[in-house]
Amino acid sequence: MSLTVCLSGSNLPPVVGGHLWVYLNWALGLRALGCQVIWLEVVDRSVAPGVTRERAAALRSQLEGFGLAQSLALEPKVEGYLDLDAAAEADLVLDLGYCAETEMVRRFRKSALVDIDPGLTQCWISEGQMAVAPHDVYFTIGETVGTPAARFPDCGLRWHYTPPPIFIPAWSVAPVPAEAPYTTVSSWWGNWVLRGGESYSNEKRSAFLDYVELPSRICPRLELAIALGEVEEERRFLERHGWIVRDALEVSATADQYRAYIRKSRGEFSCAKPSCTRLATAWISDRTVCYLATGKPAVVQHTGPSRFLPDAEGLFRFHNVDEAAAALEAVEADYERHARAARALAEEHFDAEKVLTRVLERVAP
Protein backbone atom coordinates (compact mmCIF):
# COMPACT_ATOMS: atom_id res chain seq x y z
CA MET A 1 0.00 0.00 0.00
CA SER A 2 1.21 3.52 -0.73
CA LEU A 3 -0.65 5.28 2.08
CA THR A 4 0.86 7.61 4.64
CA VAL A 5 -0.66 6.90 8.04
CA CYS A 6 -0.28 9.09 11.11
CA LEU A 7 -0.47 7.34 14.50
CA SER A 8 -1.53 9.78 17.22
CA GLY A 9 -0.48 8.43 20.59
CA SER A 10 0.11 9.18 24.23
CA ASN A 11 3.72 8.44 25.12
CA LEU A 12 5.02 11.72 26.57
CA PRO A 13 5.22 10.54 29.35
CA PRO A 14 5.55 7.70 30.13
CA VAL A 15 8.04 6.11 27.79
CA VAL A 16 7.86 2.58 29.15
CA GLY A 17 8.08 -0.66 27.24
CA GLY A 18 4.64 -2.16 27.60
CA HIS A 19 2.77 1.04 26.74
CA LEU A 20 5.12 1.72 23.86
CA TRP A 21 4.53 -1.69 22.29
CA VAL A 22 0.82 -0.92 21.90
CA TYR A 23 1.80 1.69 19.32
CA LEU A 24 4.86 -0.12 17.97
CA ASN A 25 2.77 -3.10 16.89
CA TRP A 26 0.52 -0.77 14.92
CA ALA A 27 3.42 1.17 13.43
CA LEU A 28 5.49 -1.88 12.44
CA GLY A 29 2.45 -3.63 11.00
CA LEU A 30 1.51 -0.61 8.91
CA ARG A 31 5.06 -0.28 7.64
CA ALA A 32 5.11 -3.95 6.67
CA LEU A 33 2.04 -3.28 4.56
CA GLY A 34 3.98 -0.62 2.66
CA CYS A 35 2.62 2.41 4.50
CA GLN A 36 4.73 5.37 5.45
CA VAL A 37 4.21 5.98 9.18
CA ILE A 38 4.28 9.29 11.06
CA TRP A 39 4.26 9.01 14.85
CA LEU A 40 2.47 12.07 16.29
CA GLU A 41 2.59 13.04 19.96
CA VAL A 42 0.44 15.83 21.38
CA VAL A 43 2.56 17.72 23.89
CA ASP A 44 1.16 18.83 27.23
CA ARG A 45 1.44 22.62 26.98
CA SER A 46 1.68 22.98 30.76
CA VAL A 47 4.99 21.10 30.83
CA ALA A 48 8.20 23.13 30.74
CA PRO A 49 9.86 23.15 27.29
CA GLY A 50 13.05 21.62 28.64
CA VAL A 51 11.14 18.69 30.12
CA THR A 52 9.29 18.18 26.85
CA ARG A 53 12.57 18.07 24.93
CA GLU A 54 13.95 15.47 27.37
CA ARG A 55 10.86 13.32 27.03
CA ALA A 56 10.85 13.62 23.25
CA ALA A 57 14.53 12.66 23.11
CA ALA A 58 13.85 9.59 25.27
CA LEU A 59 11.01 8.51 22.99
CA ARG A 60 13.07 9.11 19.84
CA SER A 61 15.88 7.02 21.34
CA GLN A 62 13.52 4.08 21.77
CA LEU A 63 12.07 4.47 18.29
CA GLU A 64 15.59 4.48 16.81
CA GLY A 65 15.92 0.72 17.16
CA PHE A 66 12.77 0.21 15.10
CA GLY A 67 13.65 2.62 12.30
CA LEU A 68 11.01 5.13 13.39
CA ALA A 69 13.10 7.88 15.00
CA GLN A 70 12.81 10.24 12.05
CA SER A 71 9.04 9.69 11.89
CA LEU A 72 8.36 11.39 15.24
CA ALA A 73 6.22 14.53 15.06
CA LEU A 74 5.27 16.81 17.95
CA GLU A 75 2.37 19.22 18.39
CA PRO A 76 2.99 21.99 19.24
CA LYS A 77 6.18 22.11 17.23
CA VAL A 78 9.53 21.35 18.85
CA GLU A 79 12.71 22.17 16.96
CA GLY A 80 14.33 19.12 15.38
CA TYR A 81 11.12 17.09 15.00
CA LEU A 82 8.37 16.85 12.42
CA ASP A 83 5.35 19.00 13.21
CA LEU A 84 1.59 18.88 12.72
CA ASP A 85 1.86 20.40 9.24
CA ALA A 86 3.98 17.43 8.16
CA ALA A 87 1.76 14.92 9.95
CA ALA A 88 -1.42 16.33 8.44
CA GLU A 89 -0.14 15.48 4.96
CA ALA A 90 -0.97 11.86 5.84
CA ASP A 91 -3.85 10.12 4.12
CA LEU A 92 -5.20 8.91 7.45
CA VAL A 93 -4.80 9.56 11.17
CA LEU A 94 -5.35 6.71 13.63
CA ASP A 95 -6.01 8.31 17.01
CA LEU A 96 -5.04 5.87 19.78
CA GLY A 97 -4.53 8.56 22.40
CA TYR A 98 -7.98 10.25 22.33
CA CYS A 99 -6.22 13.58 22.91
CA ALA A 100 -6.40 15.09 19.44
CA GLU A 101 -8.61 18.17 19.42
CA THR A 102 -11.32 18.70 16.81
CA GLU A 103 -9.37 21.26 14.79
CA MET A 104 -6.39 18.92 14.68
CA VAL A 105 -8.46 15.94 13.50
CA ARG A 106 -10.04 18.06 10.78
CA ARG A 107 -6.61 18.70 9.31
CA PHE A 108 -6.47 15.10 8.05
CA ARG A 109 -8.17 13.71 4.94
CA LYS A 110 -9.54 10.76 6.91
CA SER A 111 -9.63 10.02 10.63
CA ALA A 112 -10.30 7.04 12.87
CA LEU A 113 -10.42 6.83 16.64
CA VAL A 114 -9.10 3.55 18.06
CA ASP A 115 -10.57 2.70 21.46
CA ILE A 116 -8.02 0.69 23.47
CA ASP A 117 -9.96 1.02 26.77
CA PRO A 118 -13.26 -0.62 25.75
CA GLY A 119 -16.18 -0.04 28.04
CA LEU A 120 -14.35 2.60 30.02
CA THR A 121 -14.06 4.87 26.98
CA GLN A 122 -17.81 4.72 26.39
CA CYS A 123 -18.54 5.26 30.10
CA TRP A 124 -16.17 8.24 30.26
CA ILE A 125 -17.85 9.81 27.24
CA SER A 126 -21.39 9.16 28.45
CA GLU A 127 -20.61 10.44 31.96
CA GLY A 128 -19.05 13.61 30.55
CA GLN A 129 -15.62 12.70 31.93
CA MET A 130 -14.02 12.71 28.48
CA ALA A 131 -14.73 14.52 25.24
CA VAL A 132 -13.44 13.12 21.96
CA ALA A 133 -13.22 14.92 18.66
CA PRO A 134 -15.51 13.72 15.85
CA HIS A 135 -13.81 11.10 13.65
CA ASP A 136 -14.86 9.46 10.39
CA VAL A 137 -14.65 5.93 11.78
CA TYR A 138 -14.55 4.44 15.30
CA PHE A 139 -12.70 1.23 16.12
CA THR A 140 -12.58 -0.67 19.41
CA ILE A 141 -10.69 -3.69 20.72
CA GLY A 142 -13.73 -4.75 22.79
CA GLU A 143 -15.90 -7.32 21.03
CA THR A 144 -19.17 -6.38 22.74
CA VAL A 145 -18.85 -2.60 22.30
CA GLY A 146 -21.82 -1.27 20.36
CA THR A 147 -23.64 -4.62 20.39
CA PRO A 148 -26.77 -5.71 22.30
CA ALA A 149 -24.46 -7.63 24.66
CA ALA A 150 -22.81 -4.42 25.90
CA ARG A 151 -23.39 -3.37 29.50
CA PHE A 152 -22.74 0.26 28.69
CA PRO A 153 -23.89 2.84 26.10
CA ASP A 154 -22.50 3.18 22.60
CA CYS A 155 -22.59 7.02 22.84
CA GLY A 156 -24.51 7.16 19.58
CA LEU A 157 -21.44 6.01 17.64
CA ARG A 158 -20.98 3.02 15.36
CA TRP A 159 -18.08 0.95 16.70
CA HIS A 160 -16.13 -1.49 14.54
CA TYR A 161 -14.31 -4.29 16.33
CA THR A 162 -10.62 -4.91 15.64
CA PRO A 163 -8.35 -7.26 17.58
CA PRO A 164 -5.25 -5.63 19.07
CA PRO A 165 -2.54 -6.23 16.45
CA ILE A 166 0.88 -7.72 17.08
CA PHE A 167 3.77 -7.54 14.64
CA ILE A 168 4.60 -11.25 14.55
CA PRO A 169 8.19 -10.94 13.19
CA ALA A 170 9.15 -8.94 16.29
CA TRP A 171 7.86 -11.62 18.68
CA SER A 172 9.55 -14.91 17.88
CA VAL A 173 8.90 -18.09 19.84
CA ALA A 174 11.22 -18.44 22.81
CA PRO A 175 11.42 -21.78 24.68
CA VAL A 176 12.12 -21.47 28.42
CA PRO A 177 13.05 -23.82 31.27
CA ALA A 178 10.31 -25.53 33.25
CA GLU A 179 11.35 -23.66 36.38
CA ALA A 180 10.73 -20.23 34.81
CA PRO A 181 7.78 -18.44 36.45
CA TYR A 182 4.48 -17.38 34.99
CA THR A 183 4.64 -13.60 34.97
CA THR A 184 2.80 -10.43 34.15
CA VAL A 185 3.72 -6.75 33.92
CA SER A 186 1.15 -4.41 35.33
CA SER A 187 0.19 -1.31 37.20
CA TRP A 188 -0.93 -2.03 40.76
CA TRP A 189 -2.56 1.09 42.09
CA GLY A 190 -5.23 2.91 40.13
CA ASN A 191 -8.33 5.06 40.06
CA TRP A 192 -11.94 4.71 41.03
CA VAL A 193 -14.60 4.41 38.35
CA LEU A 194 -17.77 6.46 38.63
CA ARG A 195 -20.73 5.21 36.66
CA GLY A 196 -24.37 6.01 37.14
CA GLY A 197 -23.74 7.32 40.63
CA GLU A 198 -21.90 4.15 41.67
CA SER A 199 -18.16 4.11 42.25
CA TYR A 200 -15.72 1.22 42.61
CA SER A 201 -11.97 0.71 42.77
CA ASN A 202 -10.45 -0.13 39.42
CA GLU A 203 -7.01 -1.08 40.73
CA LYS A 204 -5.30 -4.25 39.62
CA ARG A 205 -4.66 -4.79 43.32
CA SER A 206 -8.41 -5.15 43.91
CA ALA A 207 -8.60 -7.91 41.33
CA PHE A 208 -5.52 -9.82 42.53
CA LEU A 209 -6.61 -9.85 46.18
CA ASP A 210 -9.21 -12.53 45.37
CA TYR A 211 -6.35 -14.70 44.09
CA VAL A 212 -3.70 -13.94 46.69
CA GLU A 213 -3.66 -17.57 47.96
CA LEU A 214 -3.13 -19.04 44.49
CA PRO A 215 0.66 -19.64 44.73
CA SER A 216 0.08 -22.01 47.67
CA ARG A 217 -2.24 -24.17 45.55
CA ILE A 218 -0.07 -24.79 42.50
CA CYS A 219 3.44 -25.94 41.57
CA PRO A 220 4.41 -23.30 38.97
CA ARG A 221 5.89 -20.11 40.38
CA LEU A 222 3.98 -16.86 39.92
CA GLU A 223 5.77 -13.55 39.48
CA LEU A 224 4.32 -10.03 39.46
CA ALA A 225 6.26 -7.20 37.85
CA ILE A 226 4.32 -4.27 39.26
CA ALA A 227 4.79 -0.63 40.17
CA LEU A 228 4.47 -0.51 43.96
CA GLY A 229 6.28 2.73 44.59
CA GLU A 230 7.59 2.98 48.15
CA VAL A 231 4.96 0.70 49.71
CA GLU A 232 7.21 -2.07 51.02
CA GLU A 233 4.43 -3.42 53.22
CA GLU A 234 2.55 -4.41 50.06
CA ARG A 235 5.57 -6.27 48.71
CA ARG A 236 5.98 -8.17 51.97
CA PHE A 237 2.27 -9.03 51.99
CA LEU A 238 2.48 -10.57 48.51
CA GLU A 239 5.73 -12.39 49.22
CA ARG A 240 4.26 -13.93 52.38
CA HIS A 241 1.60 -15.47 50.16
CA GLY A 242 4.15 -16.96 47.77
CA TRP A 243 4.30 -14.37 45.01
CA ILE A 244 7.61 -13.32 43.49
CA VAL A 245 7.54 -9.53 43.23
CA ARG A 246 9.60 -7.50 40.76
CA ASP A 247 9.71 -3.80 40.01
CA ALA A 248 7.83 -3.21 36.75
CA LEU A 249 10.22 -0.47 35.68
CA GLU A 250 13.20 -2.75 36.28
CA VAL A 251 11.95 -5.29 33.73
CA SER A 252 10.13 -3.06 31.24
CA ALA A 253 11.69 0.41 31.17
CA THR A 254 12.31 0.03 27.44
CA ALA A 255 10.59 -1.80 24.61
CA ASP A 256 13.51 -4.24 24.35
CA GLN A 257 13.48 -4.99 28.09
CA TYR A 258 9.73 -5.60 28.06
CA ARG A 259 9.99 -8.00 25.13
CA ALA A 260 12.92 -9.85 26.72
CA TYR A 261 11.04 -10.26 30.00
CA ILE A 262 8.03 -11.81 28.26
CA ARG A 263 10.19 -14.09 26.13
CA LYS A 264 11.95 -15.59 29.16
CA SER A 265 8.68 -16.20 31.05
CA ARG A 266 7.02 -19.61 31.08
CA GLY A 267 3.63 -18.05 30.44
CA GLU A 268 1.35 -15.34 31.71
CA PHE A 269 -0.90 -15.34 34.73
CA SER A 270 -2.90 -12.16 35.22
CA CYS A 271 -6.10 -10.74 36.59
CA ALA A 272 -7.98 -7.96 34.84
CA LYS A 273 -9.02 -4.61 36.22
CA PRO A 274 -12.49 -4.80 37.82
CA SER A 275 -13.96 -2.66 35.03
CA CYS A 276 -13.03 -5.33 32.49
CA THR A 277 -15.02 -8.04 34.24
CA ARG A 278 -17.93 -5.78 35.21
CA LEU A 279 -18.38 -4.42 31.70
CA ALA A 280 -17.70 -7.78 29.97
CA THR A 281 -16.25 -6.38 26.75
CA ALA A 282 -14.36 -9.59 25.83
CA TRP A 283 -11.24 -7.44 25.97
CA ILE A 284 -7.86 -9.13 25.74
CA SER A 285 -4.73 -7.27 26.76
CA ASP A 286 -2.15 -6.33 24.13
CA ARG A 287 0.33 -7.69 26.69
CA THR A 288 -1.35 -11.10 26.69
CA VAL A 289 -1.14 -11.19 22.90
CA CYS A 290 2.63 -10.64 23.20
CA TYR A 291 2.86 -13.71 25.43
CA LEU A 292 0.81 -15.76 22.98
CA ALA A 293 2.97 -14.73 20.02
CA THR A 294 6.14 -15.93 21.76
CA GLY A 295 4.55 -19.33 22.34
CA LYS A 296 3.69 -18.67 25.98
CA PRO A 297 0.35 -20.00 27.24
CA ALA A 298 -1.71 -17.36 29.03
CA VAL A 299 -4.01 -17.86 32.00
CA VAL A 300 -6.03 -14.68 32.41
CA GLN A 301 -9.28 -13.53 33.94
CA HIS A 302 -12.45 -13.92 31.87
CA THR A 303 -13.71 -10.60 30.49
CA GLY A 304 -16.84 -11.71 28.64
CA PRO A 305 -18.01 -14.11 25.94
CA SER A 306 -15.97 -14.04 22.75
CA ARG A 307 -16.59 -15.22 19.22
CA PHE A 308 -13.09 -16.63 18.90
CA LEU A 309 -11.10 -16.51 22.15
CA PRO A 310 -10.70 -20.00 23.62
CA ASP A 311 -11.13 -20.69 27.31
CA ALA A 312 -8.83 -23.72 27.56
CA GLU A 313 -6.45 -24.04 24.59
CA GLY A 314 -3.28 -21.97 24.67
CA LEU A 315 -5.35 -19.21 26.26
CA PHE A 316 -7.23 -20.05 29.47
CA ARG A 317 -9.81 -17.62 30.87
CA PHE A 318 -10.90 -18.13 34.47
CA HIS A 319 -13.76 -16.83 36.62
CA ASN A 320 -12.50 -17.75 40.11
CA VAL A 321 -9.48 -19.05 41.99
CA ASP A 322 -10.45 -22.71 41.54
CA GLU A 323 -10.60 -22.28 37.77
CA ALA A 324 -7.30 -20.39 37.80
CA ALA A 325 -5.54 -23.20 39.68
CA ALA A 326 -7.06 -25.84 37.39
CA ALA A 327 -6.00 -23.88 34.30
CA LEU A 328 -2.37 -23.64 35.40
CA GLU A 329 -2.34 -27.36 36.18
CA ALA A 330 -3.83 -28.11 32.75
CA VAL A 331 -1.17 -26.05 31.00
CA GLU A 332 1.63 -27.80 32.88
CA ALA A 333 0.15 -31.22 32.11
CA ASP A 334 0.60 -30.64 28.35
CA TYR A 335 2.76 -27.55 28.11
CA GLU A 336 4.14 -28.01 24.58
CA ARG A 337 0.67 -28.43 23.07
CA HIS A 338 -0.59 -25.29 24.74
CA ALA A 339 2.54 -23.39 23.75
CA ARG A 340 1.90 -24.26 20.10
CA ALA A 341 -1.76 -23.33 20.46
CA ALA A 342 -0.79 -19.96 21.93
CA ARG A 343 1.39 -19.10 18.96
CA ALA A 344 -1.22 -20.35 16.50
CA LEU A 345 -3.87 -18.16 18.14
CA ALA A 346 -1.66 -15.09 17.76
CA GLU A 347 -0.92 -15.88 14.12
CA GLU A 348 -4.53 -16.53 13.20
CA HIS A 349 -6.31 -13.68 14.96
CA PHE A 350 -3.82 -10.98 15.95
CA ASP A 351 -1.20 -10.86 13.18
CA ALA A 352 -0.77 -7.13 12.54
CA GLU A 353 -0.61 -7.46 8.78
CA LYS A 354 -3.97 -9.27 8.69
CA VAL A 355 -5.62 -7.06 11.30
CA LEU A 356 -4.43 -3.76 9.83
CA THR A 357 -5.31 -4.75 6.27
CA ARG A 358 -8.91 -4.99 7.45
CA VAL A 359 -8.65 -1.68 9.31
CA LEU A 360 -7.31 0.13 6.24
CA GLU A 361 -9.91 -1.45 3.97
CA ARG A 362 -12.64 -0.02 6.17
CA VAL A 363 -11.24 3.46 6.66
CA ALA A 364 -8.66 4.39 4.05
CA PRO A 365 -9.65 6.93 1.36
Notes on the protein architecture:
The chain is of the alpha/beta class. The protein folds into two domains: 4-165 and 351-363, Rossmann fold (3-Layer(aba) Sandwich), CATH 3.40.50; 169-349, Glycogen Phosphorylase B (Rossmann fold, 3-Layer(aba) Sandwich). It has helices at residues 17-32, 49-64, 84-87, 102-105, 120-126, 204-209, 232-240, 248-252, 255-263, 274-279, 286-293, 321-333, 335-349, 352-363; strands at 4-9, 36-42, 72-75, 92-95, 111-115, 137-140, 159-161, 182-186, 192-195, 198-201, 222-226, 244-247, 267-270, 298-301, 312-313, 315-318. The strands form three sheets. A seven-stranded parallel sheet has the order 3-2-1-4-5-6-7. Strands 12-11-8-13-14-16-15 form a seven-stranded mixed sheet, sandwiched between helices. α1 packs across α9 (255-263) and α1 (17-32) crosses α14. It is globular, with a radius of gyration of 20 Å.
Poorly predicted regions are: none
- Named CATH architecture of the largest domain: 3-Layer(aba) Sandwich
Mean pLDDT rating: 95
Question: Approximately how much helix is present in the residues?
Answer: 25-40%
**H/E element string?**
EHEHEHEHEHEEEEEHEHEHHEHHEEEHHH
CATH topology of the largest domain: the name is: Rossmann fold
Tally the structural domains: 2
Could you give a short account of the major beta sheet? 7 strands, parallel
- Total of DSSP H or I helical runs spanning 4+ residues: 14
Shape: globular
Name of the top-level CATH class of the largest domain: Alpha Beta
CATH superfamily of the largest domain: Glycogen Phosphorylase B
Q: Name the beta content range.
A: 15-25%
DSSP E strands, number:
16
Structural class, from helix and strand content? alpha/beta
Strand order in the sheet with the most strands: 3-2-1-4-5-6-7
- Radius of gyration over all CA atoms, rounded: 20 Å
First-residue to last-residue Cα separation: 12 Å
